[in-house]
Amino acid sequence: MGNRITDLLKIKYPVIQGGMVWCSGWKLASAVSNNGGLGLLGAGSMTPDVLREHITKCRAATKQPFGVNVPLIYQEIDGIMKVIIEEGVKIVFSSAGNPKTWTGKLKDSGITVVHVVSSSKFAKKAEDAGVDAVVAEGFEAGGHNGREETGTFALIPQVRKAVSLPLIAAGGIGTGEGILAAMSLGADGVQMGTRFALSEESSASVEFKRLCITLNEGDTLLSLKKLSPARLIKNELFNKIKELEDRGADADELLELLGRGRTRTGMFDGDLVNGELEIGQITSLIREIEPVETIMKKTVSEFNNALKKLKSTDGW
Amino acid sequence: MGNRITDLLKIKYPVIQGGMVWCSGWKLASAVSNNGGLGLLGAGSMTPDVLREHITKCRAATKQPFGVNVPLIYQEIDGIMKVIIEEGVKIVFSSAGNPKTWTGKLKDSGITVVHVVSSSKFAKKAEDAGVDAVVAEGFEAGGHNGREETGTFALIPQVRKAVSLPLIAAGGIGTGEGILAAMSLGADGVQMGTRFALSEESSASVEFKRLCITLNEGDTLLSLKKLSPARLIKNELFNKIKELEDRGADADELLELLGRGRTRTGMFDGDLVNGELEIGQITSLIREIEPVETIMKKTVSEFNNALKKLKSTDGW
């Protein structure tokens, strides 16, 4: 078909798998790339050495393009970027930080750079920094989230108006119908996190995945706003956080409760009580853990059916 | 064209004007109905006598169908419903309360009943109560809002799956592209509040409207979660509320700060400092105060253009 996103990333479908912490290793990324989307390794939960291993294994598992998601505020960012450049990775999705710092260096190494934003203001900054495309991610998304709390329905047209870059919509999208809706709002492609986090190939613990496919609307909420806002499942840890927040606790108290490594505890080790469990709102629509091949086939078929239905709609 | 919403409500376009407090008098409702949508009077800020006056004037100003929005938790609900039935109103949109209490009585009087919900659970309850259609309103919407905080992108497919009723999408929709996106997700029509609140015919104060068309993403936030969550503009009153909330104030303290009549003060009287200012996230996309006729013409043309564009899209 060919659009600005498939052309830029040299992929078949404009469907990107979000590079999520504890979910997005080489198995997931290569499966998505092998099925016509773009797989992303999630460097946010990897040391530089572990990332190198995943890049090597991903390359062995697919001949198709794949990339790495890098949260720019990550402590070991220099080591991560060194590995990415040394290993000849062709695509980087950066997030959570200033795109000015790394975009130039990455592009000098021939890397396509896409930056994740939560507002049109940040989209413009990313455009100024020279990125090749932006992901506009709305409030529905799991994990870290913008302070503006702009939902995907309001965010996409706003970013579309603000920048001329290829635009990838994210947040609340987990079906082919969602992709068509995002395109109606002006997106060229989509990033789906939650849908792929709950695939068989995702490296998240099976306990975490099994919990997610039983969740209903309202079972996740944006939390930790005095630190860095994140969408969490309402488990026991969430309730403890909420109790502190409700009585006016400050950032220090929240940090003390959280300690370190809570997302690993929850999502990777499968401690559903004490772990920090990050997933998007669209989890309430996903009721099965399926292989990526099935997910991609269903998504393509949903998209085609929804498009066909719209094509038979009369204009006003 | 004819779809389940236009057939049910006997209107030309499946576009409903949200029945908002302090914005939705007979001038706005009749203008929307005269231009092919469905106008709604907002009973939430009217006494029964004032509502009767607006119904009379609206009927004099349009031969097209119009309706009344009624928040079911309203103190004077009995008086409001009495006026609606006596005046022979044909369409009621109910919200904020249990649809079981009134749906049967209204339908016995030959009234079409549509209920506003924020989740698929409440949509099912509305279906059980016998309503004719539901409005599913997402987190992006202005004013009162669901505790689940589900964004429109995640909400619409969830409600579509849960009920077979005609479905009207709301929250973050203010353009023809947004309408097409909502339809892609399974909606039969849309309700737009913010877009019409900022029209010339809206009874909101010009000060309020002028402020809204300068707002950017993040300039509204969901607030008052310990009372009843509402999306407010970040003005001085909002900052005072936030200060209380940040230090853990309880519902009583918040009620004491708010006092009574704050939405009237802000939205109708135009006190932008001390008033409670309710508007949806899509306000950041609206940069002009226009007559309803222009808004409807633009919306229809945006919808047709977006549909034409999608029709030229290849399937995958």
Write the layout of secondary structure elements.
2 copies of one chain form a homodimer.
Chain A: H1 4-9, E1 15-17, H2 26-34, E2 39-42, H3 48-61, E3 66-71, H4 77-86, E4 91-95, H5 100-108, E5 112-117, H6 120-128, E6 133-137, E7 143-144, H7 152-162, E8 167-170, H8 176-184, E9 189-192, H9 194-197, H10 206-212, E10 220-223, E11 230-233, H11 236-246, H12 251-258, H13 262-268, H14 292-311
Parallel strand pairs in A: 1-9, 2-3, 3-4, 4-5, 5-6, 6-8, 8-9
Antiparallel strand pairs in A: 7-11, 10-11
Helix pairs in contact in A: 2-3, 3-4, 6-7, 8-14, 11-12
Structure overview:
The structure is a homodimer of 316-residue chains. Chain A folds into two domains: 4-203 and 286-307, Aldolase class I (TIM Barrel, Alpha-Beta Barrel); 206-281, no CATH class. Chain A contains 14 helices and eleven strands. Chain A has helices at residues 4-9, 26-34, 48-61, 77-86, 100-108, 120-128, 152-162, 176-184, 194-197, 206-212, 236-246, 251-258, 262-268, 292-311; strands at 15-17, 39-42, 66-71, 91-95, 112-117, 133-137, 143-144, 167-170, 189-192, 220-223, 230-233. An eight-stranded parallel sheet of chain A has the order 1-9-8-6-5-4-3-2. In chain A, helix 8 (176-184) links the parallel strand 8 (167-170) and strand 9. In chain A, helix 2 packs parallel to helix 3, helix 3 packs parallel to helix 4 and helix 11 packs antiparallel against helix 12 (251-258). The longest helix of chain A has 20 residues, at 292-311. Chain A is globular. Chain A starts with a helix and ends in a 5-residue tail after the last helix. The relative contact order of chain A is 0.13. Chains A and B meet through helix 7, helix 8 and helix 14 of A and helix 7, helix 8 and helix 14 of B.
